[in-house]
Amino acid sequence: MRRVWLLPILFLASGAVGAAGLFVWGSTRQAVIILLAFTLCAALNSPLVFPRSVSSAEARRRSAADGRPIVFWRPGCAYCLRLRFRLRRHARRLHWVDIWRDPEAAALVRAVNDGNETVPTVFVAGQPHTNPDPAWVRAQLARP
After folding, report:
1. Comparing C-alpha atoms, which of 111, 107, 104 is closest to residue 128?
2. Which residues pair with 73 in a beta bridge?
3. pLDDT band at 85 (very low <50, low <70, confident <90, very high)
4. Residues sharing a CB contact under 8 Å with residue 28, sequence separation 6 or more, in sequence order
5. What is the pTM of this model?
6. Can you give the pLDDT at residue 1?
């Protein structure tokens, strides 16, 4: 099993067990609420809420051609999720690289963050910016 799906699966399994226990005890309404809450957490922590990831090499090639920033991220990262949702529709204009799927990307992120896989790390014109403000990233898309 790929580790990108581990957290969403754990959320779903935990929610199902909790809901089943509540259902057995006769708390149907609470069981449904718990199951929906855990399903929402699973969805938010899945890689499906992010634009399709490309490899680090492909992202660098595309960024060189169109000048758009590259975002290095990983599933389950609250800061990556914050960036993704605050960018809204603009998120699709960036090049997204999942560091858990691309060892080269993980090594690059570690190289610019003192050996840590700190994400999101956004590269704009070849310069790394760790956990930048989403408004700043959106402004970089408007740059010529």
Report:
1. 111
2. 98
3. confident
4. 22
5. 0.74
6. 44
